[in-house]
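Hello Y.,

Per our agreement to keep a running log of every chain we model this quarter, I'm adding this entry. I've kept the format consistent with earlier entries: sequence first, then predicted structure.
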Amino acid sequence: MPTVGLPIILRILDNENRLVERADQKSISLLSILGVFMVFFIVYYRVIPLNPLTMALIILYFIFALMAIISLIMAIRPRIRREKAGVKIPVTRDPAFFSGISAFPDVVAYKDSLQKMLEDESSVADNYIKQIYSVARINAAKYKFVQRGVVMVIVTLAIELVVITYLFAYHLSKGGDVMPPIN
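Predicted structure for the entry above:
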């Protein structure tokens, strides 16, 4: 591959790496939002009347909250399979990719491998193309879990709003304050 195509390949790799960062930022933000709303829910947990409806909603709330947390954590650190159905991929030390760099026993071995790769332009392009493919697979897994996490967070917050609405209506119907004080 001519050197002219290398900037395009590097730009694609940079874009894929930015998508990794965005997926992580979205997951961390959603975890933070969920945490804040869970604190509010737990604070008012003691004033929720226990009846079959509220028990069902609370159980659903905690199930969906747990599923959201698991999905968002899996988005931050997805599990990627390295092999496909019996196809063995040879493990090589890639001098331009983070997992390959750390596989070298010392700096001298890394330097020799990097210099050898740089001597052949097509080897450099092939190396970065493999990285793009690897990072794209990571992104596919991350965004699958981010999408699941978003749905779970939305359902969790919707259940929380239903419980809070029921809580206000329940306390108003009993003739008391809208919300009993929390001591």
